[in-house]
Write a structure and sequence with these properties.
This protein has 252 residues and is an alpha+beta fold. It is 42% helix and 23% strand. It is built from 7 helices and 13 strands. Strands 7-10-11-12 form a 4-stranded mixed sheet, sandwiched between helices.
């Protein structure tokens, strides 16, 4: 179960995003979709159709608002259901700290996603259209999905301007403006494999990655691999650490 701070952070971020966006929604109008744009007091609105020069912009905003509103209600519901805490009872007691001193932000993430490898010809295990190299990776991806987290398989991480590495998983959290990367090392009984992983870790460390902050490692070997519970706890610990880093409790 994800920590309550995760849902609190989601709610704060979503409320802030909705506050900054124009207030609009889509409606059906004679077989097509129109957009209603409300004023600041929500008493009057302007309704525009496809002929309007800003129609596409406001249609996108209305779509995002609907998605964010749904996510907001779901986060509040989970907070109340799982932790018996209503958001109103803790509103104003927390704030989000901006990611200003770590390079692994949205800009870095977009570069990783743009150049990631989605399919590998040597892969044999397929799940939801993604071709994994091992059962370990496939099972780990299932735990991410079970927790409601989205990921990119083998994002291209820029070690330096001349070299890139592909971690096993990358996750981006808009609410923290933060991405993290995960390496699953599943053949630690193979010395050649160990040597190659040591070289990879050396490159990460030399280029600003901190293990346990930016890069997380879960390992095993041919006889032992982490089970479902251990994988889930590993992921939850990552989320908990991010919450501790970016969700700040305001002193009364």
């Amino acid at each position: 179960m994800l920590p309550k701070e995760w849902y609190i952070a989601q709610i704060i971020w979503l409320e802030d995003q909705l506050m900054m966006m124009p207030r609009c929604l889509t409606v059906k109008n004679r077989g097509s979709i129109a957009v209603r744009i409300f004023n600041n007091f929500l008493k009057n609105y302007e309704q525009i159709s496809k002929k309007h020069k800003d129609y596409n912009f406001y249609l996108q905003v209305a779509t995002i608002r609907k998605e964010y509103s749904s996510q907001l209600q779901e986060a509040k519901k989970r907070l109340a259901t799982l932790y018996k805490t209503t958001y109103n009872s803790i509103k104003g007691k927390y704030t989000l700290r901006n990611n200003t001193n770590i390079k692994f932000n949205q800009e870095y993430w977009e570069k990783c996603v743009k150049n990631c490898i989605k399919f590998r010809p040597e892969s044999e295990i397929v799940s939801d259209g993604v071709e994994f190299k091992s059962r370990f990776e496939k099972d780990f991806s299932s735990e991410l999905k079970n927790l409601g987290l989205t990921f990119v398989y083998e994002p291209r991480m820029y070690i330096n301007p001349n070299k890139a590495r592909y971690s096993d998983f990358g996750l981006f959290f808009p609410i923290f403006n933060r991405c993290v990367f995960i390496e699953l090392m599943g053949a630690m009984n193979d010395q050649d494999y160990v040597n190659s992983q040591c070289q990879k870790l050396h490159e990460y460390l030399q280029n600003g990655f901190y293990i346990g902050r930016d890069l997380f490692i879960l390992s095993g070997n041919e006889k032992y691999l982490p089970g479902q519970v251990q994988m889930r706890d590993f992921i939850i610990n990552i989320i908990t650490g991010l919450c501790e880093m970016y969700l700040v409790k305001i002193s009364s």
